[in-house]
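User: Run a structure prediction on this.
Assistant: Running it now.
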Amino acid sequence: MGCSPVLLVTRHEKGNFPYYPLPNIATVAAEMGIPVSYGEEGEKKAQELQPDIIIIGTYHRILSAQLITSAKYAFNLHPSLLPRYRGPCPFFWVLMNGERETGMTVHYITDQFDEGDIVLQKKIPILRDETQGSLREKLAILSGEMVRELLGSLAKGDLQAVKQDEALATYYPKIPDSLKYVDFTAGAEKAMQQIRALTPWPGAMLESGIKIKNIHEMHSCQPGLSFRTDEHIVVKIGSTPFLLDVDRGSVEIKE
């Protein structure tokens, strides 16, 4: 099976993808000579093409059954180890929950969200200082490798599928607004997990509305020390001091 992309369907973006410094996918596709279309118009074009393969990655809409069945094969790239962490933002939830590994899953698209049979799955470790942005970048690279493997298996005719174990399935929703504000009362470990899960998007917030850009554990700090500048705050969570990188603004720190 010789494979070459015939159409990229995406949405209009204001600039580059905001989570990590990679160029806009539409720009890359255009430079490679791949036709680009957007939204519903693009979906109609894709259906008319009756493609051999549809591959979806982080698309912003649920595709119609007519489009899915117009292709011989339709796959979704899901950034978690399915059946765990079904839903729209597993990057955030695996970090928020303190998981030590995650990965990418390629599965058949069905009429049920993230529930199709699995054809490929690969794991990666989650590092202690991992942020949502760094995790997204790693999984994007991994997904590209897996697409090549997927196409190779289809060409050889040895692609095998495994049903998801519903007993192990979990689902997580979009990031609730309430979790965008850091709960320092939960302890140092949970606060660090929450900040990194929200970095760089949508951004962790202090109650004052100041956005936290990053958090660094400090190995030494004067007892009881708390201070701020326009871009940094030192706070103590329990007995551990942390340096917060923040957007410019006024912050009141209470001992």
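The first strand starts at residue 8 and ends at 10.
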